[in-house]
Amino acid sequence: MGVRRFDHVGVVVDDIEAAAAFLEVLGFEREGSARLSGAWVDAVVGLDGIDSDIIMLRTPDGGGRIELSKFHAPADESAVRPEAANRLGIRHIAYEVDDLESTLERIRAHGYDTVRDIVEYEDVYRLCFVRGPEGLIIELAQPLRP
User: Fold this and answer.
1) 3-state secondary structure (DSSP) of residue 103
2) The pairing of beta strand 119-121 with beta strand 125-131
3) Residue-range domain boundaries for the chain
4) Which of 81, 58, 54, 78 has its CA nearest to residue 137?
5) Burial 39-55 (b: 16+ CB within 10 A, else e)
6) 39 CB contacts (<8 Å, ≥6 apart)?
């Protein structure tokens, strides 16, 4: 027996409500939230004295979720900075959209925009990267074929 299915991606943010609002503009649905602390979360995460909030948001198709986490303790001493796309680690989360232009219109109305250009990839997708709060990068891809 191995992996059964994809469940969620965890993203640590400082302004959890701004990050959740950004994802809600993209069509994510808030499932719930919780305050986490105690020995069990310390043991799982590998840090001592955790005090955090989480918000779970489900993708519009119901196939996965994003867990946003805000750590009140222990503090992360490094500053939030929008890293370049070649930085080691998870750099973006990609979603297929029905209509790239209307999706971009919706997010632009909330103050977000593309990282650079909208491009066409081999007559398969029109796509772009969008930078959300705290450097979160979302790839939006519209299929060019049915």
Assistant:
1) helix
2) antiparallel
3) 8-73, 93-143
4) 81
5) eeeeeeeeeeebebbbb
6) none
| Percent over 70 (pLDDT), the chain | 93
Interval 105-117: pLDDT, tens: 999 999 999 999 9
Q: Which of 141, 145, 138 is nearest to 28 (CA)?
A: 138
Q: Is the distance from CB of 70 to CB of 50 less than 8 angstroms?
A: no
pTM: 0.87
> 8-73: CATH homologous superfamily?
2,3-Dihydroxybiphenyl 1,2-Dioxygenase, domain 1 (3.10.180.10)
**CATH fold of 93-143:** 2,3-Dihydroxybiphenyl 1,2-Dioxygenase; domain 1 (3.10.180)
CA distance between the termini of the chain = 35
Q: In whole angstroms, give the CA distance from residue 138 to residue 95.
A: 7
